[in-house]
Design brief:
Length: 331
């Protein structure tokens, strides 16, 4: 339409000089010129209407795209965000003015740390949870830096290091790579995180169900050992499943095979959470030193989910750094 309009205008420009030289006895040509001149605004209006419609369509497309990308992040597997958080106190948050109240630690952050959710990640999370419940009974809130952990093997043996990273995330107990405490640690050992996660110097060669993680609360001496019998997890990790894992990694699985593998893999992690507190022998707990009477901050009568949902950092910038802090679903 815009090209047609340009042709008409060009014809007008050519015709006007000729009309100026035409005798007055030729009104018909002038009438034609007037007709063409009058038609131009109509053509222009039609073109503008088309342009407006196109712009509106573009705007709608932009708004739709923005609406699709402006939502809150959600995992494809709902259970990852539904695991109840563990409330922790970290003395560093207090002295730096970042939080004076217990802070929720979420399973999905452990998933981000590990790179995926699986039977091992969910098992490590549950090992730490069960240990903390014994070290800090009656709803007392655990304190990061107040816990030492003995790992059942070398850090590069089996999945020991993977378990250790998740346990470090929760407890603050770090290997030799942890924070030395600097001037803060010179005043209070709580601020020293280095060497509170101790790995064996050499591989122990133990079978997974025999591996015992030992947790010690440093201010009371309470000590507990946790074993995790992941052999009972179902669906079972068969050789066929392992071969399919290779196929998935190579990008060669069919959509049907991939969907089946997604279900298999995540069902193993969900099995841990669903059976951790009810299946005999799944998690074996040995208390080596009983906990004395609690002297810490107790939250026994407070709903942990509500406490976590109400939590906000004292320093707003912590959650304002892009990407925005994601909303979490708490059971």
């Amino acid at each position: 339409m815009r090209n047609l309009y340009k042709i008409i205008v060009l014809l007008m420009l050519v015709t006007l000089p000729l009309a100026a030289c035409t005798p007055a006895s030729a009104p018909a040509e002038v009438a034609v010129e007037d007709e063409v001149t009058d038609a131009a605004p109509a053509e222009d209006a039609a073109d503008e209407e088309v342009a407006d419609e196109a712009a509106a369509e573009d705007t709608t497309d932009d708004e739709t795209a923005e609406a699709e990308t402006d939502g809150v992040f959600a995992w494809d597997q709902d259970y990852i965000a539904e695991v109840p958080p563990i409330m922790m106190i970290d003395p560093y948050f207090g002295i730096f003015g970042q939080s004076q109240v217990p802070v929720p630690y979420y399973y999905d952050d452990a998933v981000k740390l590990s790179g995926h959710s699986c039977g091992a990640t969910s098992g490590a999370w549950t090992i730490a949870r069960k240990a903390l419940e014994i070290l800090y009974p009656d709803g007392e809130i655990p304190v990061r830096g107040q816990i030492a952990v003995e790992a059942p093997g070398a850090e590069d043996e089996w999945f020991v290091g993977v378990f250790g990273e998740v346990i470090t995330y929760l407890t603050g107990a770090s290997p030799k790579t942890g924070f030395i405490g600097a001037e803060f640690g010179q005043t209070d050992d709580l601020f020293v995180r280095q060497n509170k996660m101790v790995y064996a110097d050499e591989p122990t060669g133990q079978m997974p169900p025999q591996r015992e993680w030992i947790f010690t609360r440093l201010d009371t001496g309470t000590k507990v050992g946790i074993k995790f019998n992941l052999v009972v997890i179902t669906p079972i990790a068969t050789p066929e499943r392992q071969e399919m894992g290779k196929k998935m990694a190579a990008g060669e699985a069919t959509p049907e095979e991939a969907a089946d593998y997604y279900e298999y893999w995540n069902d193993r992690a969900k099995f841990v959470f669903e059976n951790a507190d009810s299946m005999d022998g799944f998690f074996q707990i040995t208390t080596y030193q009983e906990a004395p009477l609690s002297t810490g901050e107790a939250i026994a009568e407070v709903n942990t989910a509500e406490l976590a949902a109400e939590f906000t950092w004292d320093q707003d910038y912590i959650t304002e750094v892009p990407p925005d802090h994601d909303e979490r679903t708490i059971l």
